[in-house]
Amino acid sequence: MGRRHDPDRRRRIIDAAIRVVGRRGIAGLSHRTVAAEAQVPLGSTTYHFTSLDELLVAALRQANEGFAAAVRDSEVLADPRSDPAGELARLLGEWFGGERSGVELEYELYLAALRRPALRPVVAEWTEGVTEVLARRSDPVTARALVALMDGICLQVLLTDTAYDEEYTRVMLARILASASASASASASASASAPGTASASASGAEAAAAADAPAAAARGTGPVPGGAPAGPERDGGRPRRPAPETGSPPPAPAG
User: Fold this and answer.
1) pLDDT tens digits, one per residue of 43-56
2) What would the mean pLDDT of 187-208 be, rounded to a whole number?
3) What's the rounded Cα separation, in Å, for the pair 230 and 223?
């Protein structure tokens, strides 16, 4: 009998892997446990995913889509008149307000990249995707700092088993944005004043030269009106001797 066509089987295997990790952790994940959870033949899991790393990559990519999609689809973040810090803090609050086990699972898969290098490109994808969206309201460097802060806050909440503080998150995100804005304004002001400073310096030099012109002419070291040399005529820096007179010398005095 041929294999029955089941277009959703791959997705069901990924969903089953996420549930297995949620209950047993990464250590409890195997092709056999996933096949049992998905209620599919063992060969189906190895057919779609030849290694556990491939299965974990698919699971992490799917788990990561939740918050990233919320950021990407936010109409508030797309509005340049809105408060991005407040919106990000609210989105994190909604995420934590859902099923806590789902958030824990996502970070368990996320941190599994420490031991499984195959997962690191997926983590980078998530970071770059969220950074790209936030950079539209700031700049790439600031957006990366916002992502890092949100990551840190989430880890603190999960590892210390404390409640998520939306107002604290909003204030901290706003500080990063305000600092970036102040730095950009200072750089713009410095760039705008630089040409004027150079012009003022040039004008000052010209004025100083003009003021010194009479004294220079008196010393014989500067030009005078009309382009004539100042002071006595000179040749190589020495006074020029008078030209000898032509004709016969004067007669000698008589006896």
Assistant:
1) 999 999 999 999 99
2) 57
3) 6
In angstroms, what CA-CA distances link 217 with 204, 208, 223, 229, 235? 20, 14, 6, 9, 17
- How far is it, in rounded angstroms, from Cα 96 to Cα 114? 24
Residue 110 CB: number of other CB atoms within 10 A? 19
Which residues, in sequence order, are bridge partners of residue 235? 238
Compute the distance between CA of residue 241 and CA of residue 189 in angstroms, rounded to an integer: 62
- The CB-based long-range contact list for 115-124 (8 Å cut-off, 24+ gap) reads 116/53, 116/56, 118/53, 118/54, 118/56, 118/57, 119/53, 119/56, 119/57, 119/60, 121/57, 122/57, 122/60, 122/61, 122/64, 123/60
CA–CA dist 238, 78 (Å, integer): 80
Report the alpha-carbon distance of residue 21 to residue 113 in Å, rounded. 14
What mean pLDDT is predicted for residues 4-24? 87
Please write down the HEC assignment for all residues of 185-230.
HHHHHHHHHHHHHHHHHHHHHHHHHHHHHHHHHHHCCCCCHHHCCC
Q: Would the pLDDT of 249 be above 90?
A: no
Tell me the per-residue pLDDT of 223-248, one tens digit each, with 9 for 90 and over.
444 444 444 444 444 445 555 554 55
- 217 pLDDT more than 60: no
Q: Which of 91, 69, 107, 104 is nearest to 146 (CA)?
A: 91
3-state secondary structure 16-60: HHHHHHHHHCHHHCCHHHHHHHHCCCHHHHHHHCCCHHHHHHHHH
